[in-house]
Amino acid sequence: MNPRPFTRRGVLAGIAATPVAALTACNGVQGGADAAAADFPTRAVDFWVPFDPGGSGDLVSRALAKAAEEPLGESLPVTNKPGANGAVGLKELLAGDADGYTISLAVKSLFAITPLAVEDPDAVVIEDFRIITTLTNEAYVLVVHADSAYRTLDDLLAASAVNYATTGVGTGSQLSAQLLFVGAGVDATDVPFDGGASAVTALLGQEVDAVSASLAETMPQIEAGELRAIAVFSEERSPFLNDVPTAMEAGYDVVVDQRRFVVAPAAVDDEVAGVLSLAFEDAKESPEYGQFLQDNYMDRWEVDNLEAKAHLSEAAEQYAALAEDAGLQLGDGS
């Protein structure tokens, strides 16, 4: 028998399924899709990560999936499906069945920043999805190689030209760096990669001068003395990098963060979504998951589906205004 939180699940499922149950009783219909939803899950639930292995999104997804297997009562195998800041994997998710047996990580930047950079008539929008659970809020940090001649942010912004890596076109990594360099009047060239791990690797190999990436993707190298942090793109200094100034302290109004969450297609059954949500709720309360967040410099983002969607909508408007004011063209990196 699968080890599931039956009491909590039963209460939530009963509330979510009440209209369906009433309609079924009136029509004398039983079984079918409703019965399948009531038994969910009866097999493994595929958890997609639409990014390369090794990045922040991949790390948190694997930690969450591992912690959720016991409360869900089934395995959660993780598969990487990288491309286009998550759009490739999420489009494939929408093309499949909305039965809850395939879910995916998603990120704020895909919905709030990528539309500023990529004209895609078939772009996914947040209304296509149901947010099963919210996960993390992560700050971006600007780093250079430990052997770089640029010791401080002022040094870097005084350079005649800069090549900088980003985690991809239309990402918070790209937006934060470009807002800074354009605001400072620096001749800077964007070198996009498909994820934080590859962007940081390029900097470690001194193929570029700098990179803006999440703390999870850079702190191990910062602590090892391989990279040097010179600015953070948050309103206040990071408690993990208290000696590193914010871009705002240097006079540049650049505040960009990344939020991560788990989605299923919007048509997923209410009861199925409830079972998944409760399993992830239990997983996030586990000591192992909490320790993972602490070890990887991630803050929790704990809001419901509606609040999360409202945040994404507000962020999209805010970032669009910032990009317009700065005259940015994210698609061509200028």
TrEMBL record:
Keywords: Receptor, Signal
Keyword Signal attached: yes
InterPro entries xref list: BUG, Bug_dom1, TAT_signal
Top-level lineage group: Bacteria
A UniProt-annotated Pfam family: TctC
SUPFAM superfamilies: Periplasmic binding protein-like II
Record protein name field: Tripartite-type tricarboxylate transporter, receptor component TctC
Species for this entry: Glycomyces sambucus
